[in-house]
Amino acid sequence: KRESELINEVVNHILKRLDEVFRPRDNKNQLVGVESTVEEIESLLGVESKGVYALGIWGIGGIGKTTIARAIFDKISGDFDGSCFLENVREESQIPGGLSCLRQKLLSNLLKDKNVMPYIDLNFRRLGHMKVLIVFDDVTCFSQLESLMGSLDWLTPVSRIILTTRNKQVLRNWRVNAFKRNHPDVGNEKLSSNVMKYAQGVPLALKVLVWESAISKLQRILHPSILEVLKISYDSLEDKEKNIFLDVACFFQGEHVDPVMKFFNASGFYPEIRISVLVDKPLIAICSYKKIRMRDLLQELGGEIVRKESINPGNRKQGQKIEDICLDMSKVIEICLNTSTFTKMPKLRFLKFYSSSFNGENKCKISYLQDPGFAGVKLNNFGIE
């Protein structure tokens, strides 16, 4: 080539790189309070150190995993020879040929070649001579990563990978360090506190709430947009995992894990593995006191799913279908039991009496008719809290 052509190519290449580094970002939705998180993850990535390093951002839907990953990508991508942010891997992989398109996009962006062939190993080997940054956003299973990348062995020791996922098992399978994104810092304004109390660190919840007009509704309804995002993790569960999730949401929040595990074992749910799946999603948590915890929004999700089992509340779960009963004794005057009380509930497996408030009285509100069938019943057998 002539000297003038070479100079022109060099200038165009430099201008393109400068544009990538200094391209103005969209500031109409400026992020607040993420700087410390971005800096922490940046330090964990160890951009200046050597060794292919992958880091995962793990948590439930709507808490800002993608937002944080994008902020980091925008900040450090200019330090790499090639970079790619693959958004919505979960959604794209559900489309026929979606993973192939994502692989094409991945290689095209990293190699800056629109005509690259995604199935030729030679193209992946070319990455072995480059310093690249890759973000895989919303990965749900290990097979997606295998289809897109195959192995980290293609990459140089100075390359970096970021994964966002709802499922911690994905990170384990790819031996990725997990950065658990719990919640952002919040202010102490009264209105903000009220809304944040409901949102529980889920930015998506804040995004769909209309502040003052929404305050009166916060305790009554789960916004459809929030429900849709949270339900993604629920829908990915197996049937018995869904049953355990709903039971925890309706009955076992705050209960010690040991008796709950015994209950699920008696129900044939084999809970040891299934509970760990729910923890990994993460839809529940086991605190240091071995008690089961669930976010209020997820508990509302469980209640909403149960309510939608029947459009007509009056027909919801007829006696033949009732499996669980949980009664707040502070809201009833008295309950009278007789021999036919539970005969129409053959599937009943859980019965709990409790009191949500204590007014100083210690009166048992459960009585039973004098009947031969109840002769051996002792009221102190009931778990009245």
Automatic annotation (TrEMBL):
Alphabetical keyword list: Leucine-rich repeat, Repeat
Superkingdom to which the source organism belongs: Eukaryota
Presence of keyword Repeat: yes
Gene Ontology molecular function, alphabetical: ADP binding
All residue ranges annotated as the Disease resistance protein Roq1-like winged-helix domain in the record: 238-310
Name of a matching Pfam family: WHD_ROQ1
Domain NB-ARC: 35-174
SUPFAM superfamilies the UniProt entry points to: P-loop containing nucleoside triphosphate hydrolases, Winged helix' DNA-binding domain
BP GO terms, sorted: defense response
Name this protein carries in UniProt: Uncharacterized protein
